[in-house]
Each structure stands twice: as C-alpha cells, then as structure tokens.
Write a structure and sequence with these properties.
The chain is 47% helix and 10% strand. The chain is α+β, with helices and mostly antiparallel strands and 305 residues long.
Length: 305
C-alpha cells in the first residue's frame, strides 16, 4: 500500500541548508552550475548570444523541449554545439525549421547528437517551431506577454488540449514548469505567481526528496504517480519557513537536482560514499530508496541512516 507522510520539520532543515549552500561559492559537492547555465565562456557568446537575447530564449525553449529521459549535461552541450555551428543554427529559427523537411531536421539534429529518439525529437521540434512561427511570430516572448507575465496563467496553458497538440513535450508535466523556471532564472524574465508553479519532478528531485526523508513511508509506482505528492511536500515545507530569500518551492529545483546527481545517485542500500561530504548527510534517511526512470520503490522511516 502506498502511504507517504510529509516530514515538514526535517524538510525545513533540508531546504534551508540546500538553498543556502547552493547559492554560496561552496555549492553542493562543490557545484552550483546547472547544465543549461554553461553558456558563458562558450562559443555562443562569440556569435552574439546574450543572456537577455531572443537567440538565448529560443535556445533555452527548444532544447528544454526535448529534455526527457536524457543526460542533461550531454543534452545541453549538444544544444550549444548545434547553436554554434553555422550549418545547424537554423534549427533555432522557428520560421526556418517549420519549412524544412522532417528528414532534414532529423539529420541536422543528429550532427551534434542533439536528438536521441531521432524521429520523435525531430517531429516535436518541427511541430513546436511551426506553432511558435504561426501563432507567436516565432517569439515565445509573445506567449509570455499574452499571459500577462503571469507564471500561473502561462502554466495553465499546458492543460489546454489544443496547446498540448501544438506544443508536444514542451507542454509536459515536468518540462513546462522547468521551462518557466528557466525563463526566470536564466533569462531574467520577471514573472508573477512563481510560488504557484509545481516543482518539476524528475528522477533527481524525486530521489533527493526521499533520500533526505522529507517524504517518508511506503510507495511503489511511477514518478508521475508521486510527483503531485512531492510538490505538495515542498510547498508545505516552504510555507512554514521564514527565510529572507527562499519563498517558493521552485527555488529548490536546482539544489535538489545537484544533491541527487552528485550525491544520492551513488548510495547503495544505506551506504552512501558521499555522505561525509554531503551538506545534509546527517539527515540522510534509513531504509530502501530506489528511484529510476523506470519507477520508484520506497520503504523508509523517520530515523536517519
């Protein structure tokens, strides 16, 4: 039977430690840079891609649209190489991409390994490009303005049947809130109601949530089946905080991702080789936590491992 409980008291400790460490020079396991952040110092600056540019908006929007079941580091590096290459850069121009044959899009995405599921990725890329070109003059910024720069109104678009058809994958339960976070964090776009946006639950966010004991009990199923409970947990935890900067759950997405990718991923049973270097190692939960893209199996209590 699936029975999960939110440990808000423990969650507050975890949230503050992770947020403060991630936003310090120390970082989590010495890291506080996300794969999508690694633009600066790369060849993209040399071709005029700036933080607040249309080109960067298209780069973030299109690459995140195929960020499902992918190694994030490899995906975003492939995206950068594709943008830097004059022969493949047209992929990020919706007007150009919508008019190209699907076979050409597929071949172009393969050049720098931007696609993984080649047929599906190319189909999604072309459909999303066409939708932005036809409905928003090739500018995602016009979609944001149409929603009054309100994150929740923007998020509600993903529930529209027609929008899901026009923007496949991008409108997904994980990818769309991830895109909204990137609009704010990477492009500096001011958005209202960010606190109402669910945290994008992937393998890493789920694993970190269970490993830290912020959500305990028994569960066996898919990430999709537990994502709402994970979001509820972090919103409940943040609601009880009085932190000067940490005010909504979406702000923990990057810290949780780093904790899992660089720490929790290496745990086997109750033994974590990185525990001594982990900022929340003393709070690590005991019991079984198995999280992968194939599913989740958890059996934990409140005591630490």
């Amino acid at each position: 039977m699936n029975r999960l409980e939110i440990n808000a008291g423990k969650g507050k400790q975890v949230a503050v430690i992770l947020f403060d460490r991630f936003n310090s020079d120390e970082g989590i396991f010495g890291k506080n840079v996300m794969p999508e952040d690694l633009l600066w110092g790369s060849g993209l600056e040399g071709i005029g891609v700036k933080r607040d540019s249309y080109e960067y908006l298209m780069f973030i929007t299109m690459v995140v649209s195929i960020d499902y079941m992918r190694d994030a580091d490899k995906l975003w590096e492939a995206g950068r190489r594709t943008m830097e290459d004059p022969e493949t850069r047209w992929l990020f121009n919706p007007t150009s991409a919508m008019d190209r044959p699907i076979d050409e899009i597929m071949a172009t995405m393969k050049k720098h390994k931007l696609s993984r599921k080649h047929t599906r990725d190319a189909d999604f890329w072309k459909r999303i490009s066409k939708s932005f070109a036809l409905f928003y003059d090739s500018d995602p910024g016009k979609l944001i303005k149409e929603c009054g720069s309100d994150a929740m109104k923007l998020y509600e678009r993903k529930c529209d049947v027609r929008f899901k058809k026009d923007f496949p994958s991008l409108s997904g339960d994980k990818i769309f809130p991830l895109w909204i976070r990137m609009l704010h964090d990477n492009l500096g776009i001011e958005l209202k109601n960010l606190g109402r946006i669910p945290i994008p639950v992937d393998v890493h966010v789920a694993r970190a949530t269970f490993m830290t004991g912020c959500l305990t009990g028994e569960f066996k199923g898919s990430i999709a089946e537990v994502s709402q409970k994970i979001d509820e947990a972090w919103k409940t935890i943040i609601a009880g905080l009085h932190h000067p900067k940490l005010t909504y759950a979406l702000q923990l997405d990057e810290a949780l991702w780093h904790l899992s990718k660089n720490g929790c991923t290496f745990r086997r049973g109750n033994v974590c080789p990185r525990r001594g270097h982990c900022p929340v190692g003393d709070l690590c939960v005991s019991g079984m936590v198995q999280v992968s893209a194939k599913g989740i199996e958890v059996s934990t209590g409140d005591s630490n491992g």
